[in-house]
Specification:
Elements: H1 2-26, E1 52-54, E2 57-64, E3 67-75, H2 89-105, E4 123-129, E5 132-138, E6 146-151, H3 153-159, H4 163-183, H5 187-227, H6 249-294, H7 299-305, H8 308-340, H9 345-381, H10 386-403, H11 405-419, E7 428-431, E8 434-441, E9 445-449, E10 455-459, E11 467-468, E12 474-482, H12 488-504, H13 506-509, E13 512-525, E14 528-537, H14 542-560, H15 574-586
Antiparallel strand pairs: 1-2, 2-3, 4-5, 5-6, 7-8, 7-11, 8-9, 9-10, 12-14, 13-14
Helix pairs in contact: 1-5, 1-6, 3-4, 5-6, 6-7, 6-9, 8-9, 12-14
Length: 587
């Protein structure tokens, strides 16, 4: 069985590796635009990442079809004067981009496809105006001389050239970009790009179908695991039943270990299915990203998709793996604490029940913490100010706290229940009219499995008085009634001998801690003499011991001729007595 599991796990990792290689193959020919000014740095003036700061200057990119051509620059600090004549660096870059888009996409020559100029006669010229140079574009036909941009000395200084040389370089860059954009808007290129899109869709569909098959297989394994879920200390649901999983400390330990193994298998199955879902999502995200790169009209969306959404996906993956690592760390930490103490079997099993509860609560808290940290990092990556958001959430939290006092009370009471060890998962408790085994608990609720398998959910704030019948030790307060004609001393002696004999047998020796704590006549009733004996047992074993003790005591009383008390009542009816007397006389 273990070898089969190892082989399946190995095949799973091989498939994930193959899918990863295939995804890299799909995006192998993708290129990242290179900037002339170097790596982007956050700016103190403008927090947008596309604006960078170098020395005492800031710059913004000018793009065509999502590809960066060059950067325009200005001195810092950039101040808007009172007249509003100056414009920001990003606005200037946007105006230049609008001019280039207008040249490319305006249908000056008519027809189905955009043709803003004649490529064979396209000419870019530079004219000097005062201290600056202005770049014009024309095709000696429909496209009249059109000003594209003004080149300033700061632009040239930022890029490391003299003003005239940088202006000439810009004419070459812009002309190449315009010709490239013109070519990519022609039917021949669009037809070839469409074929590439179909190829990407076909490859993505095949990869996605392979992941779907593996997801289906893991879903079937989850269904089998769900059907094989161990009961874990919830053998029966009544204190008068036979909780065989609790009457033996070794069985409790085995049941706990079985539950842990089942939880690990289910957790691993859920983790693998989540990974496959993310892989499937990543397949189509990369497919869309790649397809949008083929067309100039959608290339800008491809650039955007490779920044914010991709970074958000990375944050999501990091949070998911952090939660997974936290879960494993919590299990290992609790196990190390448990192994550190040399406890007797009873204390060890009690500790295991407590650690199951701690594990559930700690995992839930760590999950919430990682999700909150992920949201904060995501907001920061989207350049949304965190402080106002946190302040707003705090105000909302204060407002909600007035309407969620019950929730706060539940959480606080849940914390005290854990710290004081009032009960843990696996304990048999009674809260009001609810009795049963604690099946699940967290800081807010406690779920109790009661009679007929009924699951009762209690809010921790509503638990004021709890009776724990399986903590540390238990006691049987056994009472029975014998007739007044029976020998009381003999009956008490028989009751003691029966339980003492049970305590010497291997099956009951560890469960019966003190055979006779006290015994004697507890009351004189109409039904007879009431006898009581108190027996100290291990927690959870009291019901099975009581059932067996009743059976043996009945047999022992029969052998000694001791009769159990019963309710008797004499009723005198004068009319019936006279009628019977007359019948006797007549006969």
């Amino acid at each position: 069985m273990s070898r089969t599991f190892v082989l399946r796990l190995r095949h799973f990792h091989q498939l994930i590796l193959a899918l990863t290689i295939a995804l890299f193959a799909v995006s192998l020919n993708a290129s990242i635009p290179q900037t002339l000014a170097g790596e982007a740095l956050p700016s103190d003036i403008n927090p947008v990442t596309s604006v960078i700061r170098v020395g005492n200057m800031i710059s913004a990119p000018v793009q065509i079809d999502g590809e960066e051509l060059f950067r325009v620059a200005s001195n810092i600090p950039l101040e808007i004067d009172k007249k509003g004549d100056n414009i920001s660096i990003k606005q200037r870059a946007k105006l230049i981009e609008n001019e280039l888009d207008a040249i490319l996409n305006n249908q000056l020559y008519g027809g189905l496809f955009a043709k803003g100029f004649e490529p064979n006669t396209l000419t870019l010229t530079v004219k000097k105006e005062k201290e600056n140079f202005v770049i014009f574009a024309s095709d000696q036909d429909e496209l009249r001389e059109r000003a594209i941009m003004t080149v300033t000395p700061i632009d040239a200084e930022f890029n490391g050239y003299s003003l005239d040389i940088w202006a000439k370089k810009l004419t070459i860059l812009i002309k190449k970009a315009l010709l490239k954009g013109y070519e990519q808007r022609q039917p021949a290129y669009l037809y070839q790009a469409s074929l590439w899109v179909l190829g990407v869709i076909l490859l993505s569909s095949l990869l996605s179908f392979g992941v779907y098959l593996l997801q289906k297989r893991l879903s079937q394994q989850k269904l089998i695991l769900t059907q094989q879920k161990p009961e874990f200390n919830l053998a029966e649901n009544s204190p008068h039943s036979d909780p065989t999983d609790l009457n033996n400390q070794v069985q409790i330990h085995e049941a706990t270990e079985q539950q842990k193994r089942w939880d690990k298998k289910l957790s691993k199955n859920q983790y693998q299915r989540l990974v496959l879902k993310l892989v499937q999502l990543l397949i189509w995200v990369l497919a869309v990203w790649k397809m949008t790169q083929f067309f100039p009209q959608t290339r800008l969306f491809s650039i955007w998709l490779s920044h914010d959404p991709f970074f958000l996906l990375i944050i999501f993956l990091f949070v998911m793996f952090a939660i997974r690592i936290s879960t494993l760390t919590i299990d290992a930490f609790l196990q190390s604490i448990q192994d550190h103490y040399n406890l007797n079997p009873m204390e060890l099993n009690r500790q295991e029940l407590r650690f199951v509860t701690y594990s559930v609560v700690l995992k839930g808290v760590s999950k919430v913490i990682w999700i909150i940290l992920g949201l904060i990092v995501a907001l920061d990556s989207l350049e949304i100010p965190i402080a106002p958001v946190v302040a707003g959430v705090g105000i909302i939290g204060i407002a909600l706290s007035f309407g969620s006092q019950n929730l706060i009370r539940d959480v606080l009471n849940g914390i005290f229940i854990l710290l004081e060890d009032q009960y843990a998962v696996g304990d048999y408790i009674t809260v009001g009219e609810t009795s049963g085994y604690v099946e699940y608990m967290n800081l807010r609720i406690t779920q109790v499995r009661g009679k007929e398998g009924r699951l009762t959910t209690l809010t921790n704030g509503s638990i004021n008085i709890v009776h724990n019948q399986t903590k540390e030790w238990a006691r049987i307060d056994f009472k029975t009634t014998i007739t007044y004609q029976s020998n009381v001393d003999l009956a008490l002696d028989v009751m003691k001998k029966v339980i003492e004999q049970m305590s010497q047998e291997p099956d009951w020796k560890k469960s019966i801690l003190t055979p006779v704590m006290s015994s004697g006549v507890s009351d004189l009733l109409d039904t007879g003499v009431e006898l009581e004996i108190r027996i100290k047992t291990s927690p959870g074993a009291q019901w099975k011991i009581a059932c067996e003790y009743r059976r043996r005591l009945k047999l022992a009383f029969d052998q000694q001729g001791i009769k159990f008390g019963k309710f008797e009542q004499t009723v005198f009816l004068p009319e019936v007595s006279q009628l019977l007397s007359r019948q006797i006389i007549n006969h």
